[in-house]
Amino acid sequence: MNAKHELVLTRSNTDHNAIIQSEQGGYKMTLGKVEWLIPYVLLNLVKTDKALTLTFRTWSLNEYPKLPPTLKHIWTVKTSSHLERPRYVILGFQTNRQNKRDRKASHSDHVALRDIKLYLNSQCYPYGNLNLDITNNQFALLYDMYCRFQAVYYGRDEEPLLSKTEFLNDALLVVIDCSKQNELLKTGPVDVRVEFESHANFPAETTAYCLIIHDRVVYYSPLSGDVNKRV
Questions:
Q1: Where is pLDDT greater, at 47 or 192?
Q2: Distance between CA 7 and CA 26 in Å, rounded?
Q3: Count of CB atoms within 10 A of residue 50's CB?
Q4: pTM, whole model, 2 decimals?
Q5: Is the pLDDT of residue 169 over 80?
């Protein structure tokens, strides 16, 4: 088989975001083994070199390094092709956590968020205002959006992975389901834009993250190794 596959694993030049250390001192993490588990394809089907239809979802993480100290901000995240339409968008914020030995890089901060909107061209998600006041424990809509995503995406009907307390204190994320789209969005490029506002100015050293989950369909010829996007 002449097909070639390449997996690029980029390692950070520092371990500060991977471990918490309360006292100053030296440490080093060593990555000893990486395994990539993939399913086998039927050998007879491979021998025919028939183009296989592969459907999967890709994750695209976008970062806004430092938000300006304002109450409202508009972030033009990216332009997505009609072949990679966003299905879910997950947003989170971190204040002064990067490369800090004594702060957990896996946790997020609520930054006194008031409202957030996702725009795919002119189509808006969610339709209504969230009217958040997280400092006063008004975040029920965000937790409900998180629970719905878990049930739909992972097929989990049991208890959420995170309790309300854990969600509020450790991983307050905005999960937006944009899988139901206008037909106009399926015929051309889609501009992904996020508008968010807060009760107070965004703190200094606040970073915004936007994880976009796309649907992807490609045609793969096993013997030749050709991979073509579905038109």
A1: 192
A2: 31
A3: 12
A4: 0.77
A5: yes
Inter-residue contact 121 to 184 (CB < 8 Å):
yes
The residue assigned the tokens 């001192």 is 25
Strand intervals (E) in the chain? 52-64, 72-80, 86-95, 113-120, 123-125, 174-177, 190-198, 206-220, 227-229
What CA–CA distance (Å, rounded) separates 107 from 20? 12
Give the whole-angstrom CA distance, residue 91 versus residue 171.
11
Per the CB < 8 A criterion, the answer to whether 189 and 81 are in contact is yes
Considering only 109-118, 152-161, 180-189, which range has the smallest mean pLDDT?
180-189
Which residue's entry shows tokens 């901060």? 109
43-229 is a CATH 2.60.40 domain: no
The partner residues of 88 in beta bridges, in order of sequence, read 177, 213
